[in-house]
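Anyone else keep sequences and structure tokens together like this?

Example one:
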Amino acid sequence: MRFGSMSWAMAALAAVMLSPALADDDDENAPTAREIVENAPESDWRGLDPENTLYMDLPAGTVVIELRPDFAPGHVERIKTLTRQGFYDGLAFHRVIEGFMAQGGDPKGDGTGGSDLPDLEAEFTRDSTEVEGFREIGRDRMAPRLGYVDGMPTAAEPEGLRAFLTNGHVDVWPVHCPGVMSMARATDPDSANSQFFLMIGDSRQNLDQRYTAWGWIVDGYEATRRIVRGEPPSRPTPIIRMRIEADIPESEREDIKVLKTDSQTFTDYLKADDQLSDTGFLKDICEIKVPVKAEGDLEL
């Protein structure tokens, strides 16, 4: 019995001594985040709806934006209406703050103008039952539930709160990370009209649940880096034109596919990129780049 006990102990000690090396080998052989995405099956990719895809042509290139009527139906309809009127063509970004946002859509160019249409009611949050496809990925210090709805970074209250709230309403809302499109307004929550801003920094703490986010930049974000900064900028960057993809001939449309954020591939990608821990803690949702294939080229 003693000999057997010693043999077992030695074997256990050997296993402990070997395990770090084995773990290192496993880490070295594990696929990278890019390799995981490159090997994703075709079923893990989705196209964009032409009726809810916006092309914003800037001097530095075209920015492709996915409109999100599931979060802000009234604001999306307004953006589409004004775009089809040619309202935004030629207007400039009149207020651009580095690390924060770039604001445009004002015909006066000074932040006081708007369209002839009535102001919009706020759409800061939605009930979780009104937004389909929320995939909870994890949590962080600011939100108990974080995830995505078809690529849109999203936060939500715990679903278990519904039974304890008098209105039975559990909020879900887009988070203001770089690339998110949101609507400018005055002090009145229901004063948004035509002016919008695109996020060039993380401002979740200041803007979430206080401004209406209506879309996210799927492709062309690098073109926004060339928007001239300033309040006002010395040489304001113009919007050459804005178009809804459904109104563009198919031969001129961009071939874009987005990795489904409710897929296992996306979760594996986040873990390989060291963004998601095994305990479900998200490192920084605003640093995550949803993988996109544009004209066949993978963008991470």
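And example two:
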Amino acid sequence: MSFFSFEYPYLFLLFFPLLYCMYKCREQLKSRYFVHLHFFSAKKSFLKLEWIIKIAILLFLCIALASPIVVDTLDPHNRVGKDIILALDGSGSMNASGFDFENEVSKGERLSRFEIAQVIASEFIQKREMDNLGVVFFGDFAFIASPITYEKNMVVDMLGYLTHGMAGQNTAIGEGIGVSVRAFKHSKAKTKIIILLTDGEHNSGSISPKDAIKIAQEQEIKIYTIGMGNKGEADEALLQTIAQESGGEYFSATSAKELKSVYEKIDTLESSKIKSREYLQKEYFYWMFLLGVAALLLFLLYRGVQK
């Protein structure tokens, strides 16, 4: 986020006493100090313009002294974040409704589990200011819905285009992890995280969860797993194993409110170090006003010589 400001705004207070002095302080010029006073003579038609230019010079000097700057608080080229993949289950069971008992997310609408997961995941993405994020979608097979990127709005948009059943009706957890690992191929981040959400059991795909865990371990990728739905629907034992062996943590969410708190807890556990301090990139523009002052002074000098 960028905004315009001044480093020393209090220096604007100089403008008014100096302006007063321009009108009230009389110059005392004598010929013994400068004999060519005719260079400073001016026609009456120019006097009004001359005063306007002098006031502009004074104003520009005050602005330059106040040091106008554009501050960028989120410079993506100088951040220290993490690369995160959200692996979302889009199988047929994710079309079930009745998950938002407290009306925490749906706001009166009848939303499916997948739609609720989309809303909460989108909020999570927007909060991760210093991180790169991507989305992997899995059902019978898995695919990268959004590559890892810093453009949060693009990731949220791509997430919004997904619907349950796009990748089939079954649940290929191994494929979901395998494709998520593949999404980190060009990642240079020291910390790589997969947040895998599912409401079912592994029953499809060519990659077993066991093999997928090994691949993640080799790449030093941490996996947080979330079992969504009523107790016994998701394979809690498998999800706990995936999380434990990869250095992550398992969470259970039986309602939209719990799911939201799970993402908030993961956000806290994996907060970027840079979040504890504010990084500022400043771009200075005082030189533009100094150039303006120089140009106006040259104009006054030119007009004086012409007289």
